[in-house]
Design brief:
Number of domains: 1
Distance between the termini: 41 Å
Pfam family, one: DUF7545
Number of strands: 2
Strand content: 5-15%
Order of helices and strands: EEHHHH
Length: 96
């Protein structure tokens, strides 16, 4: 069954922007609460993706991660915990 799409515009402080369309049915499937907006769902997905990527770079990359990457990971995971009310490790079952 084909679904309609919901289009999002992402804008940053530096004035750049991007547009992305996601199947509406998928957004409805991912909604954890009836009042959760599509924008909240996409925001959650973006932060989860960022946390996964920085975690991978720090803990699963080639060589030793430097202090700069570790600081970025710490800041990202702090925002993750603020948004989701649990740590990245608690949510994913992948903790170091």
């Amino acid at each position: 069954m084909a679904s309609d799409e919901t289009t999002f515009t992402i804008e940053s402080d530096d004035g750049s922007s991007d547009e992305l369309s996601i199947p509406t049915d998928m957004l409805e499937l991912l909604a954890e609460e009836d009042d959760e907006s599509s924008a909240q769902i996409v925001g959650d997905l973006a932060l989860i993706s960022c946390a996964q990527r920085i975690h991978g770079a720090v803990h699963h990359g080639q060589g030793q991660a430097g202090p700069e990457l570790e600081a970025i990971e710490e800041a990202t995971l702090d925002r993750f915990e603020e948004r989701f009310g649990q740590t990245f490790g608690e949510m994913t079952g992948h903790d170091h």
